[in-house]
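Working notes for the structural subgroup meeting. M.R. asked for a predicted model of this chain before we commit to crystallization trials. I am recording the input and output together here so anyone reviewing the notebook later can reproduce the run.

Input as submitted:
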Amino acid sequence: MKTKTKLVKRITSFGLFACALVSLIAATTFSTSGLAQTQRPETHCNVHMLRGLYLWTWDGYADLGGNLVPKAVMQGLQFNGDGTTFNPFGTVNIGGSIIIDATGGVGTYTVAPDCTGTLTITDGPSFNMYIGPGAQQLWITQIAGGAGAPPGLGVGTATRLP
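Returned structure, recorded in token form:
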């Protein structure tokens, strides 16, 4: 009987030791990954991260006299890294007619630490935007018309060109 009791105690001790070891490994693994995550530098967006030429495609509707008319935009949008933009090329099509050659247009932009921002085209519409990882892509939606642009709505993306 003593041999059987010793065997049960050894098996139980080994089982407890194995459970403790597994728990220690699991705790160390989760603790280390949590520590690595908290020590990793946070990525905060800023106005300087938008630098370079983006191809901006955008579509929506223009409000012309109470009628919503389809519009589409394709343009180059050069972010200068200092809160200013320049359009090296671009076309705005409203209702099937090319009505604006956007080449040479200028604007301003802001970027908040949470990667949201604004874009305002001088004498044109204003937009809200979200800056994606590494500022490789932007998602943009119109929030207001402007002196040279009818009010409307629309969404688009801008992708950084190499």
